[in-house]
Structure formats: structure tokens, C-alpha cells
Amino acid sequence: MFSLSRKDLVALAVFSVVVLTMPIWLAPLGASYPGLMQKFAIYAIFAIGFNILFGLTGYLSFGHAAFLGVGSYTTVWAFKLLSMDVLPAMVFAVIVSGVFALVIGYFSLRRTGIYFSILTLAFAQMSYSLAYSVLTPITNGETGLLLARNDPRYLDAIFGAQADVAGLPQPTLIGNSVSGYTGFYLCAVILILAFYLSQKIFASPFGMALRGIKSNQTRMNYTGFNTRPYTLAAFVISGMFAGLAGALLSITDPLAGAERMKWTESGNVVLMTILGGVGTLFGPVIGAWLIKYFENIFSAINTNMLNNAFSFLPDGVQGFVVTVLSKFVGEGWQLTLGLMFVLIVVFLPGGLVEGFHRFMARLRRRKEAPERVSSTQPAE
Amino acid sequence: MSITPPNIILHAADVHKNFGGLRALSDIDLQVEEGKTHAIIGPNGAGKSTLLNVIIGRIPPSSGAVIFDGTVLTGKAPYEINQLGISRVFQTPEIFPDLPVLHNVMAPAFARRDGAFRVNMLRSVGSEHEIREEAEAILDDIGLHGRREHHAGSLSRGDKRRLELAMCLIQRPRLLLLDEPTAGMSRHDTNTTIELLRKIKSSGMTKVIIEHDMHVVFSLADRISVLAQGRIIASGLPQEIKEDPRVQEAYLGGGVE
């Protein structure tokens, strides 16, 4: 029931090692601080969930940030009303975003293709605007939803926890603070679980049905599958993943703002998935890491750092190289990302994962080629 | 109206279909006996595909009803009709081009076993040995076993048609609808398909087949109905149809052979 095929088991083991050793291998890349690694893990969860809908069924949602936002708000409300423990907060965030996804999916999935995408975008923008205006009592509008010392926290009150701590209360995991590396490892473990769940879905008859819908919906209907509940289930599951990612955002930094629901956030997860490889297990994770890396590290490179890096060049050349490169880093990081996106979509429609497979296939061919030569020689 | 005898599994009763002002089907009364192969022939534009589409629920009739084993099919969704035990082979093969050939055949078996909708996320396709063996046996029958790991989209047109037939057969339908199953096939492929259809004929499955190729029709059919200008002009045993002067005039152009 919880078993995986040997191939998936190896993939899960490799994935777990890669995720848990992030602080080591990200150090030379200048990204090994917990705040950023948490983001890597959280957005990977978001993209994995998005891929269950987009990658398997082919339905392209442009409104998944709405579920990220709902998860964030729910978590902060759980902190305010129930307890500072992260477990009930996460459970509620997943449930509430799931209900949200059920409603939005029910209407959006009545259409396919571009109309479906537009409907999801409309719903997400509606949620975004509402969070800023009408729903201010729930979302605290532009300021964002914050914790306060005098929040009721009924569950904590019952158990008498954190009654008289100075300053704002901090989220805890069964009594342990989740700041810094603990926060990262919490996100990392949940990412591994999310990856495992996505492996199970990919390998299941349910996942096969979702792929069938992407491949040929007509045949699915005439084969006896009622496709609508399948797509709705995929939509709700991916909405729950997004809600969980939103919850973790609020857990690692206990506030929630409406900007998390903005359409650019929805667009980002689409880019992540396409960049890495739609419908693959690793693709969305790689895409999420790449984009977050560019956004946080590449954007921080300034002219001084470039000057230092190219100080070995003669003065004139150095000035030229730095002037050209500075357009692509710092504030220009989106230019680099955009160019990379264009190149990948044009030359590697399957994303980076396809690029990797092609590379491996070429290596294998090169390895086999000499053997063939040597075996034909005796015959001559 | 006529009373359906107990051994009639499919009955299109008094079916009319108009497309705007065009009468595509009129006064259709088609009865298909259980376990028989019933061919529908007729010249181009006679309404054969329309009739099949009405039966399968793809287009609703303007009036009349289609009854399958006591259940009215009219108004039901395609998946519901399939769950009642009716599978269909299309004129242009409808397969899953992005899935491996083996999964193409396994998916319909899941629909048969698990019904129209089931979220079974914790099972894995790889551990469904029973369905896998069944699918491999059918692929062996149609000669595609060696290509089971290939994507179905990479198959030749003839292979796609046979694959689609296999996808229908694994559901063990009570009624199989075939829309020109050999159109565009080479003579050799046509004969292989006839052999395959003969083999399953003995299994008691009812078949309704639309076909242009008289060679295919007369080698398979137990009953033939002739459609011309949206009406059934004759219905009967192959020998009767061959000799019917109205049929010869309307369709066969004066001679069968």
C-alpha cells in the first residue's frame, strides 16, 4: 500500500539526500542560509502540487496562488485562534484550501483549454482583490495579517502553554521553536513527503486516468471514465499542496499578505513547472529551485562584485565585460531568467529534465560506440 | 410500436434525426440479436455514422429512443453507456497517443473493474498483475506485444486501429460497435482484422459493424441492414441481401461480386 517500485524508491532516496544535504551543497553557491532554503523547499512543494494538475491532466491553471494565499491566511488565523503549534495550523490550511479548490474547480472545470485558464485567473484575481478590500476584517488588507500578543489562542490557553512569554509568540512544533535550521528541516521533511505522495499518484491507476485525460479525453469518456470528478480530484489535491506551501510560508514567517495571491505568483509556478519539465517528478522541483535561486542570489549581484570577479582582465576589457554582464544580473535578473526560459521552451520543450535525459542518452551512445567498433574489426 | 423480443439486445426504436432541414435518419427501426454480428451497409452519406453516433449517445436523436437490454440509452453520457457494456471502435482511431501501448490497454480494464470514478492513489499500476497479464495476452493476440513499451502515438495507422480494438476487447463488452474497422488498411491487415473479429465472434459478443468493404461484410455478418438516404431499405440474412433487387439498385449497383 505504501510501497514504491524499485526505480521510484531509488529516486526517493536520491531526492531525500539532495534535500537534506542542501546546507552543504548550497554553501558554495552562496545560498545556504535557512531563510532561502526554506523558500526552496516551500516553492518546490507548491510546484509539485501544481504539476499533479498541469503535468498529469494538462489543465493549465493560472490561479494557483489563490490557494497559496488561503493556506497562509488560514495558518495565521490558526495561530491567532487555536495554538502556536504548527500541526493544527497545517491541517487547517490544507483543509480550507482544499474546500476553496473544490469550489473554484467545480466551476472552472466546466470549461477546458484557454477558457479554463481564464476562469482560474479570474477567480484568483477576485480573491486577491477581495483580500485587499471587502475582506479586510479577515485579511487585514494592505498591512497583512499579523500575530498579536493578546490573540485568544484557545487551545494553548487550555493547556496553559506560552502564557507569559515576552514579545510576540513564535510558532512551535510540539514545544520546539521552528526558527532557523529547525524551520528548514521541517520544510525539507514535508517536501520529501510531498514528493513521495506525488510518486504514489504518478504510479497509481488514478494517475494513469489523469494522464489518459491529458492524452485523449474523448477516448476516456467512451472507455467508461467519468472524467469530471477525476479532474476535480486532481484540482483539489493540487490546491491542497498549494495550501500546505502557503502554510509553511506563514509558519517560517508568521504573517500573511494579499500579494501572495497575485497573478504573478500564479504565473511563477507555471514557469517553474515548464522550466523543469511538465509531467515529470523532478522537473517542478528543479524549476522552483532555479527560479528562487535567480530571484534571491542572482538579483543580489552588483557591479562591485562583478568588478572583483573580473579584476584579472585588462582595464578596458574588464570595464566592457562588467558593463555587459551587469545588465543580466542585479535588477536585470529577470532578463536572464526570461532568456533562459525562451531557450528552454524552444529547444527543450520537455524542460531541463528532458535535457538531462538527452544528455544521458548521448553519453550512453558514446560509450557504446567504441565497443561496436572493436567488435566489428575482427570480422574485417 | 413493435415489441422487443427477449433475445434482442439492442433496439433503435423509431429513431429520427434532423440536422436543421436535413433529414439524416428517418423511421429507423433496428433490432440487433444477442450474440450476432449485425452489419450496417449503405452508400456514402446514407447516415450510417449518424446512426452509430445516436446509438452511442454522441448525438441525441430528434425523436425515438435506443434501448439496450431494457435500458434506454438516449440521454445518457458516453461513460454511462460504456459502463452498461458497450464499447466503440472509431473510424479514426481514438487511442492515448502519449501513453505506452500497454497502458492504453490497461486503462480500459481499470474502467471495467473500478467503475466510472475511483481515487485509488495508494495502489500502483505496476502491482496490478491480473490486469497486466490480461492486457499482455490481448496484445499478443493482435501482434503488438513486442511494442508494449512504445508510445501508442508512434504506431502505424493500422496498428493504432488494432490497438483500439484491443482496448475495447479487454473491457469484455456485451456489445461492440465498429465503425469501418478496416478502412484504410492494406489487404493483409484487413484479413488479420477479419481473423481477429472471427475469433471473438465465437465468444458470444454482439457486434454492430459499419463497413464499406463487401468482402469484410460478407465474411463476418450474420445479419445485414441496408441504409439509403437515412432509411433502412432492407434487413436480413446476407444471402437475402445479396439477392434483394432494391439493395442492388440502391447500393450495389446491380451486382455484388
List the helices and strands and how they pair.
The complex is a heterodimer of chains A (380) and B (257).
Chain A: H1 6-20, H2 22-25, H3 34-57, H4 65-81, H5 86-108, H6 113-132, H7 136-139, E1 145-146, H8 154-159, E2 172-173, E3 176-177, H9 180-203, H10 205-215, H11 217-222, H12 227-252, E4 255-256, H13 263-276, H14 283-296, H15 303-309, H16 315-326, H17 333-347, H18 351-376
Helix pairs in contact in A: 1-9, 3-9, 3-10, 3-12, 3-13, 3-14, 4-5, 4-12, 5-6, 5-12, 9-10, 9-12, 10-12, 13-14
Chain B: E1 8-19, E2 22-33, E3 37-41, H1 48-56, E4 63-68, E5 71-72, H2 78-83, E6 86-89, H3 101-114, H4 129-141, H5 157-169, E7 175-179, H6 187-201, E8 206-210, H7 214-220, E9 223-228, E10 231-236, H8 238-243, H9 245-252
Parallel strand pairs in B: 3-8, 3-9, 6-7, 7-8
Antiparallel strand pairs in B: 1-2, 1-4, 4-5, 9-10
Helix pairs in contact in B: 3-4, 3-5
Radius of gyration of chain B: 19 Å
Oligomer: heterodimer
Percent strand of chain A: under 5%
Mean pLDDT of chain B: 87
Widest beta sheet: strand line-up of chain A: 1-4
CA-based shape of chain A: globular
Number of strands of chain B: 10
Under CATH, the topology of the largest domain in chain B is which? Rossmann fold
Number of domains of chain B: 2
User: Could you spell the SSE succession of chain A in H and E letters?
Assistant: HHHHHHHEHEEHHHHEHHHHHH
Q: So, the CATH homologous superfamily of the largest domain in chain B?
A: P-loop containing nucleotide triphosphate hydrolases
Stretches of chain B where pLDDT is under 50 for at least 5 consecutive residues are: none
Q: Which structural class fits the helix and strand makeup of chain B?
A: alpha/beta
Mean pLDDT of chain A: 89
Question: SSE order of chain B in H/E notation?
Answer: EEEHEEHEHHHEHEHEEHH
Enumerate the strands of the largest sheet of chain B in spatial order, edge to edge or round the barrel: 6-7-8-3-9-10
CATH domain class name of the largest domain in chain B: Alpha Beta
Strand fraction of chain B: 15-25%
Main sheet of chain A, how many strands, which sense, barrel? 2 strands, antiparallel
Distance between the termini of chain A: 56 Å
